[in-house]
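Query structure, 193 tokens:
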């Protein structure tokens, strides 16, 4: 009888190899131009193993995008310890987001290819599983009750998230990250003020 732990470890190792190989190819060539035979060759596994772990190329792409989103979430959480005020945490989190999005290929995967391949609803669900609630809770904590009463925090989080994404795209295209950090901090202070 085989050790279930070794089977689980082998499964996780195979999935990780597929995700890593797919990520590299999706970044280099894009989703549409990447074939499953290329992915399995790069991962050093069989095509059968790919379909054992993922329903299809789109499901593998979703796993890649989810890993990227989780990495961004981890960076934001690391930059926002509990000792920060709500306002300082929002600003630190926005800076961490911009830094995390500077990882090579991440902007393409999360902001360009992801919405195109997975669609708005699937990307929204991934966002809600990762960073969206953190931003919404941060906004709820930071909003000045007297000034911002009646503003729905979930809608505000959606709008602010779009601003973060636009800034990440601009920085990825060569924009000055410090200028975007300053603009986002100003926007957050105006909202929470």
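Result returned for the query:
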């Amino acid at each position: 009888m085989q050790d279930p732990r070794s089977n689980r470890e082998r499964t996780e190792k195979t999935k990780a190899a597929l995700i890593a190989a797919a990520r590299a190819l999706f970044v280099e060539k894009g989703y549409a131009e990447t074939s499953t035979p290329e992915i399995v060759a790069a991962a050093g596994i069989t095509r059968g193993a790919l379909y054992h772990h993922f329903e299809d190329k789109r499901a593998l792409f979703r796993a890649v995008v989810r890993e990227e989103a989780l990495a961004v979430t981890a960076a934001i959480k690391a930059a926002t310890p509990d000792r920060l005020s709500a306002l300082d945490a929002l600003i630190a989190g926005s800076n961490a987001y911009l830094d995390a999005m500077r990882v090579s290929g991440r902007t393409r995967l999360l902001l360009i290819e992801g919405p195109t391949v997975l669609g708005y609803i699937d990307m929204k669900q991934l966002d809600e599983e990762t960073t969206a609630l953190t931003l919404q809770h941060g906004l709820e904590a930071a909003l000045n009750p007297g000034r911002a009463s009646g503003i729905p925090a979930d809608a505000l989080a959606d709008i602010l998230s779009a601003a973060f994404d636009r800034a990440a795209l601009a920085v990825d295209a060569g924009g000055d990250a410090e200028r975007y950090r300053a603009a986002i901090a100003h926007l957050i202070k105006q909202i929470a003020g």
